[in-house]
What we know:
It contains 9 helices and 15 strands. The strands form 3 sheets. It has an 8-stranded mixed β-sheet with strand order 1-5-4-3-6-7-15-14, sandwiched between helices. Strands 2, 8, 9, 12 and 13 form a 5-stranded mixed β-sheet that branches. It starts with a strand and ends with a strand. By secondary structure, it is α/β, with parallel strands linked by helices. The chain has helices spanning 9-21, 36-44, 51-66, 85-94, 109-118, 136-140, 161-171, 198-209, 274-283, and strands at 2-5, 24-25, 75-79, 100-106, 124-130, 147-151, 177-183, 218-229, 232-243, 247-251, 254-258, 263-266, 270-271, 286-293, 299-306. The mean pLDDT is 94. Strand 10 (247-251) and strand 11 (254-258) form a beta hairpin. Helix 2 (36-44) packs antiparallel against helix 8 (198-209) and helix 3 (51-66) packs parallel to helix 4 (85-94). It is globular.
Amino acid sequence: MEKIELVTDEALEADLARCLSRRRLPDCFLYTGAGGAEKWLTLDGSATFPIAARLTELLAASLGDLQKHWGPRHNLVSVGIGSGQKERLILQEMSRESRRCYWCVDVSGALVDIALTAVADLEVDAIGVVAYMEDLDALKRLWREPVVLCLLGNNFCNYEPDVLLGAVAEALGEEDRFLFDCHLLEENDMLNPAYTSGLNAEFNARPLVARGLAETGFAFHIALVARQISVGRTYRTRKWLEIKKESRVAADGREIRLRAGEDIEMGFTYKFESGQVEALLKRCGFCILEQWFSPARENVLILAVRDHG
């Protein structure tokens, strides 16, 4: 199995230091560094954070329909792979017809290794790639068309939707497919309790705690705020770490001083209504081949293609 680094550990550490100097901690850094992958897998498998597990259940229930939409030449590309178990489910079905190529992509080299191991017993040619989601143009030069491009595990909702869909549209060819899932807006515009759990707070604070921030030196906050986007009013999370005690954290070979009262702004997750996701796809030049909802309709899985008509 081959592994390609479009971004190195050293480059990630330098990027983290630049972000922290501006009091920002983008979510990609939650998965990198010492313990990042392990902390995510602990959260991902926890009963207090069932969102990812329920999305996996939806994918498993939809595989019989999904396989009708790809041919024997389609390969698999997945960006933001987590443990790689969702991709394994897809590849088990794909490899029944023919041997496939598989590119598993994540900013965490440790998660890439785990995803490669997850398919080691399958008849697939697997290549791991360490890269940002924003490296999609470079990634396209690595994969072999036609592909099914996947953003699973609610990954789609962690980016500005018009920007992300524009980049995906540029990357996809005529025979390519785009498969992604979303955890939709809860009733009464409420934030799912999974996001406010102590385990999630620990996961979000890990990069700074691992670099010297005292475990009692911060408070984790998360809120659901209204936001106007191209298809109307929706919601997204706002996360931040409030520094309670002056601290120094190490990044890229230097110390960064965090003062009491400062906030470290973190990543976000959009909470769309299903109709908004459909409208975003149409606006960005996609058409939906098929979509599947969980029994309570809190999750959706969508297979789309570029509308070349």
